[in-house]
Every structure is written in C-alpha cells, then in structure tokens.
Amino acid sequence: IFRNGFVSYKDFPISGLISYLMDEENLFINEDLYRASHQNIIRKRDDSSLPRENFKIRHTNLTSDNIQKERLIKISKTTKTLEELASLLNIKYPRVIELFDNSNIQGASSVSAMVTYIDGMPSYKDYRKYKIKTIEGADDYHTMQEVSRRRYTRVLKENLRKPNLIIADGGKTQVKAIQEVLDELGIKDINLIGLV
Length: 196
What we know:
Structural class: alpha/beta
Radius of gyration: 23 Å
Oligomer: single chain
Helix content: 40-55%
Mean pLDDT: 76
C-alpha cells in the first residue's frame, strides 16, 4: 500500500488511513498511530515547494487511493478463487463462509471457534468463540452439534444473515454432526463441506 517514497508511518499523513480503517473495519488504532496522525507532517525534499495544505491533501488522497486499489486487488483475487471453489463444488458463489473448529486440552476445557469470510475476506467482527456447555471430554461429534445448534438457532431466532457455505474442520463425522442439526432446524439452503 505505502509506496512512492514513504518510509514509515511518521512520513505521511495517517489521518486519512485512520478514518478509512475506522469506517471500514472498526479497527482499534494504537496510541502511537493516533499521535502520529496529529503531529506536524515533515515535508519530503521533493515537496518543499508545495504549500503545506496542498502537501497534506495530496498525500492524504494518495494514501486513500492506494488503500482502495489494494482492497480492490484483494477482492478480485479472492472473488476469482471463490468462483473456482463454487465451480469445483457445483454450488452458487459462496459470498459468506463460516468455518468451525473444535479444540480441547486432553479432553478438558473444550471450546469451539467460528470464523467468517465475506467475499473471501475475513470478517473479524463476525468471529465467535464458544465455550462448550453440555459435553464432557473430547467428543468432537457432539461438540460440533452443540456449537452449530447454538449458532443456527440464533440465526433463525434473530433473523441473522445465513452463510452460503459452512466448512467444518474435520471429516465425515463433523459434517454429519452439523448436517443433522441443520436438518433438525429445517435449514436446507446452506452448503456444507468438511476439511480433513
């Protein structure tokens, strides 16, 4: 993103970047970056003839343009990959993908995680961590059922966005566990695969 002679965040106006990130992803910007955005900007040698305001505007616009270009490049790459995946699986384009994985420490402290991708880009605000409430020990099948039941009961109850594709970290056992829950809830319009 930061080419054209930029060396570090102290060498260019970060205020445009901060407002972009805050609008797009609601990301936390650390205190150093916040302070840097409010410091005076040091002009580069080749820009010494520019008035200070023109310099700020020019570099803020350049930063914003670079961010937009990089984002479009990423989206176009992931879109192509998702189109290939859809073709391979013979499904519609999977705009929203939710992935599930279970973990435990020698049968204790079971947890599951769900990560979400929208158009191939991680959607951090949609990530979820589930503490397993009803299953004792290392029981991946029932753990996957509990988590998927909790997730998709809530999706139906609160009329939340459904994914186009669910990916379970595991083979037939994990896929079967989720499929049984989807059938139980009457959800027929979500594709499901497993990763081994």
